[in-house]
What does this fold into?
Amino acid sequence: MMGRAIGTGLGLLFGAALLVGCAGRHSTEPIPVGVLAPRTGPDKLHGESAWQGAVLAQAEVDGNNLIHSRHVLLQQGDTGAGPEAAQAVAGRLVQVDNVVALLADFGVHHGDRLGSVAEEGRVPLILPAELPGPSNKNVFHTAAAPVERGRALARFALEQKARRALVLTFVEAGKTEPSGVNAALTEGFKEAFKTEGLTVHAYTKRAELPELVRSNKSADVLVLVGPSADLGALPTGKSDSKRLHIWAGPEGGVQTLHDHAELPPVYLATSFWFDPAAAPVKDFMARYHDKFKQTPDVFATVGYDDARLLFEALRRAERLEPEKIQTALAGLSDFPSLTGPVSIREGWARRTVFVLRVVQGKAALVKAYPSEP
It folds into this structure.
């Protein structure tokens, strides 16, 4: 009874907040948008970049491109204190600040909690990371689906003449099958790596990895579907360096490879890579540097693009109400992001997937796979 009462109370509170928000969205007051990113903790610099990217996008709206004759008001929410705190912060943005939508960073570890807030509050959540768990109609990913990244990695491996692949997939303790993002990445690779030389092993502890690799010496491509920290457990002898090493991890994880300089080149797939020589990117970098006296990183770029994508949906929405905004987001096609055209279909982005080669923490583009129709 107690749990039911609390749940009902939260539902009433969200409903009241929604009614208050909708009542005020026909005025000329600024449109409130929540931005969730770490401003404290170990990822605070990444969070600052994401926030500054969104601020730059807001400045464009306020400068000469108002939305329904209204400015945008960004409301900041710090997710750096952990998943529970991130959920509470998001809830306050929805309940108290009456934001019309939430923008989030790459924080996969709290994504499912933010998804719950979006679902309960009936507001769209836009994020570049993959949300674990069941689908949520309120969540819109600006990354390609994990299964698409898995397929791109398999296509790349085949193009490198690999014919025998060993896929090592992390499975949480107490479970028998991979879940969420790991399952989708593994399935995508299996679908596209159409040879008889495919072996898939599940593991629960990184200590298991060396023996699994040694017992599959004939594999010419090694695919780790798990935490980047587990890359350090892979053998690095001369024979191992001849293999193609692929890491299929969470979106935005390229930054975590800086700590693995001892490894041979590692390949990964991402939705977010931009050409600094392209005119729109050069313009963005110049304006970002002028405003913040910093060079933008991938977090700033994605923060900027995701905010612009949301603002475009707000502009297309008939009214600034949750259902109308969701409809506008779901119908976006060929949105010109700095990392390539983006179309939203069934909550995921249809976009180019980039395969990067990372050596001693430095990434370089090796192949781009445009979205298939």
Remarks:
- The chain has two domains: 2-144+276-338, 146-270+354-369.
- Residues 2-144+276-338 form a domain with the Rossmann fold fold (CATH 3.40.50.2300).
- Residues 2-23 form the longest helix (22 residues).
